Amino acid sequence: MLAATVWGIGIVAFGFCRGLWPALFFLALAGGADCVSGIFRSTMWNQTIPDALRGRLAAIEMVSYMSGRCWGTRGRGVARCSA
Description:
Elements: H1 2-16, H2 20-48, H3 51-82
Helix pairs in contact: 1-2
């Protein structure tokens, strides 16, 4: 939870930066926090999901990651056309 909070703070602070070096610092901070959060997520994944279901759930997770950007782009396109 702390890593996700630090990631959010880093992204918000990046949005308010006016200079290059502070912006790079906050992006690096957010990236580091995201790496820590990813390690915790994978650890929880490996400890809680039974081996028999791990492949199926990994496939569902991959589909959600792969389709998220496409659905977001489609949503922006629909909003743009309706405006």
